[in-house]
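Section 3.1: Structural characterization of target chains.
Under the original work plan, the team committed to producing a structural model for every single-chain target entering the pipeline before any wet-lab resources were allocated. The record below documents one such target. The sequence was received from the expression subgroup and is listed exactly as submitted; it comprises 267 residues.
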Amino acid sequence: MASPAITIFRGFPVTAAYVWSPFSCKLEARLRFAGLAYKTEQGAPPNGPRGKIPYLSISRSGDDAAAAEMVSDTALISEKLVEDGLAEDLNGRLTPVEKAQDAAVRALLEEKVYFYQGYERWEQNYYTMRDKALAALPLPLKVLVGQLAYRKMNGTLYGQGTGRLTPEEITKFKTEVWENVNALLTASSRKRGTGAQDEMFFLLGGSKPTEADTTLFGFIASGLVCAAAPETQRIIRSLPTVTDYADKIHGHYFPDYEHWDQGGGTK
């Protein structure tokens, strides 16, 4: 049976480059860990099944564009790929304790760091974020939509709790998360114990990635290319094991993408 045609809608017009969305980068990592070919399109949140970026279309052989199956939410997309036999269950070989650890790391990043980064991008570096996220809009509309996006994010952050913290507290909590991730990766690297300088290692210390690796790489790659996240970049770049981990995944799974140190995705 022929492989389906897969398209990821990432919210940004660039191709062959990382984008500023951590969940878009996460989804790309999931597909590449599975060895699935795909193409990327910009798309837009209103066009997605759940009104958010990213989303994905799957077209089987012989289907026309109108018959393509649209799927949203990165966790549900991963489940769909496994159910359809398109990808291996990355967590299928884990013990119950390892599955809990995997879920905890994903929650830490997706339910904590995401909002810390949202504050950094939309509150502290608003114009840089607006001009990138809304680059396709003419200036008068960009100003209007930007203000609407800002107010929505401001309300979300306040309701979630991050918006009630001081900038100094947010920096402290954000730094602690990344330092803890660095400690986990350091332990995993030592657990692998191969001694080979170019040997890849993964978050839980196994020989293959898990779902937590898709999330972690997505947050690292998107953070390092996002010009609206200078503090996040400074924190990540100060942690050698985090950058080593990301460099090795980039080199093995994303050789066609420009590295973040060469400006990949920042333009």
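The beta strands are 5-9, 39-41, 55-59, 69-72.
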